[in-house]
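BUG: 3D viewer hangs when loading the predicted structure for this chain

Environment: internal workstation, default settings.
Expected: structure renders.
Actual: progress bar stalls at 90%.

Input used:
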Amino acid sequence: MDTSYKVIDTSTWKRKLHYQLFKDALQPQYNVSLELDITKFLRKVKENKWPFTLAFIHTATKCANEIEEFRYRFLNDDVVLYDTIHTSFTYLNQETELFKVVNVPMQVNMEDYMKLAKEIIENQIEYITGPIANDVYQFSSLPWIKFTHFSHTHSGKSNKSNPMFDWGKYEEQDGKVLQVHHSFINGFHVGKFVEHLQDCLNKY
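Structure tokens produced before the viewer hung:
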């Protein structure tokens, strides 16, 4: 995947104080549960016979990439800002009932992304190909249940800063959960992302 990034000079960074406040916290990641209106998006998905999961991942990634704070990461002892963040998601093997972690480089066009994702899914034999990359958003769905809260397994690493997106069964109301790192993302930026994502979903 593309790993283009720039190193941030944290001594003069506008987030210097907030970064220092949270970077060594025992658990600096926090979860936000929310609801989204996917009426127009779902209609477009059904019209085009798109896989819902891939369509939502592409849309959410596109929106998150347009907000700078969602592209910050720790890299070794530095803070870096990636040009593009890619995708990593779980995909269930119906026969074994085990999931594999699939990594797909982000594509500008929805159809191009889906074509590439399907190829990788079909050709990947391994359940897990290695550690989660730094330049990805992590996605996972629980389409069998509707929920209003969700918690992740904790890696034990305070510098794990990949935003994580989870969603459940969509109905008239649909729950989503987003986990982010407080060194880089405040509640304001979560709100900015959710507003932007809702706008993107409404434009389909």
